[in-house]
Design a protein that fits this description.
The chain is an alpha/beta fold. Helices cover 31% and strands 21% of the residues. A 5-stranded mixed beta sheet has the order 5-4-3-6-7.
Amino acid sequence: MALTVGQLAPDFALQSHLGEVIRLSDYRGKKNVVLAFFPLAWTPVLTSQIPSYQAALDRFDGMETQVLGLSVDSVPCLKAWAESLGGITYPLLSDFYPHGQVAQQFGVLRSEGYTERAIFVIDKQGVIRYVDVHDIGQQPDNEELFRVLREIDPTAAAKVQPTAAPTAQPEPEGDVIMYCTPWCPDCRRARTWLQERGITWTEINIARDRAAAERVRGWANGNETTPTFNIRGRIIVDFDKAKLAEALGVRP
């Protein structure tokens, strides 16, 4: 069972993909910590979740918060995966040996040998202030993390310029609209797939266009799943070749 709000987070020392040993206690009295346990590198949801923290690092830094990713993968595996995502500059920690020891301390090691998709927000005193053991196949909501951080550390939050809520924008014109992010490998495969079939499309980067991200979240059960397509009003979530081929009238 996962640790709960109000408990002191157990300390640990783990090697990161950046070549340094990270101790949770290093941040005591200095920074809040978002500790994101993720099942395994190279899995689909994580190709959005982990880079989404990278894209929001300025916001986390402004709220005096350190993001740490953690999985049971080895350091070389995490390093190669981070490079494949275009570079992750915050620490991805390896709980490889003893296998899953830290995940077990936090109560999020699954019987299969990998971790839950779980997020712990830990305040500057080392106390757990928020726990989300998320559906393993869905991406957690970053805005919920910022809400929690504003609540537990209003002094730090007051120093940050508020982020304007996305305003409603009309759907851009085009028969085929692809909502994507720069780091999404399925987006790269989808571009190639469309090009090979002579399909033209309009592309929207939801990491920059937050109003577009809100549309995607509405279509994808609250998740920022990429790629998501709007093909003449038909919404297709994820790179589903069969559905795309049917909607476009081309070969799969």
